[in-house]
Design brief:
320 residues, phage-related protein like fold, 5-stranded mixed sheet, single chain, 25% helix, 4-stranded mixed sheet, flat, alpha/beta
Length: 320
Amino acid sequence: MSTPTPFVVDPVLTAIAVNYRNPDVALIADQVMPRVPVMAPEFKWTYFPPEQMFTVPDTEVGRKGVVAQVEFTGEERTSSVKDYGLDDVIPQRDIDTARSLRAAGNAAFDPEARAVEGLTHLTQLDREKRVAAMVQDPANYDADKKVTLSGAGQFSDPASDPIGVISAALDATFIMRPNIAAMGRKAWTALSTHPDIIKAINRSSGDKGRASREAVAELFELSEILVGDSYVNAARKGQTAAFERVWGANISLIHRNMQAGPDGASPAWGWTAQFDGRVSGRFFDPKVGLKGATTLRVGEQIREVIAAPATGYLIEGAAA
């Protein structure tokens, strides 16, 4: 009885095998919370209390009066990147077998390349899941900058008012108006096919049709609408797979600033500190298998930071 290997060696099956994975276009974490390089694993960033820039003192000065003094302060916050990574162990026998098959022209499979590709995708998906959870968490928004829709108020109901709800949300944020919207496929389908949206964009009856992201972004004066399409298996190891969408039926309106970062000079709802870039490497372990094994590793050192929650607004339950 032959021992199974972690890859398909049949050339016919290899040729027709489908690699199920989330396409890169389905991942939006890097666009929602852009990466910002930091110089060390531990970094500092400055939070500026907004009241000091909006509390107007008496500026009138008498002929011999004393000019009023003000003091500007900032709250220094310290954080550090976290390590995220995954390993895949490939027995040397499998590597040798795959190399022989490629040399004979019977297969093109490279278990090491496949491992790095798979590990990279899973680390990206883990980040997508983290960012989606942060963006969709009501605790990350001010108390007056979130709303929960239900019943006829949800955008999946033709009688709802998405233009009114979203416009009010955009006007409710502090200082910096949201310039992007992030949502899951379900929320986007409800929004883009809503009769009121179709009427506003196409100048039609709104009975049928679908609006483009660009048109809806222009309607609400947004720079971009991001739709997360990624899936994740929510079942524990060994259980039957239970696939669910990473991004739920919510709409997050946030202010994104590609120049934001630890210096605090440019506010943004959130950004991501990154130390170095993504790393990948291998090391040989002679204790695994008869001929040893190669461990492939992929990882990165990052930390997601929510810096200005007042510049965002969360619409929960946008679709049924």
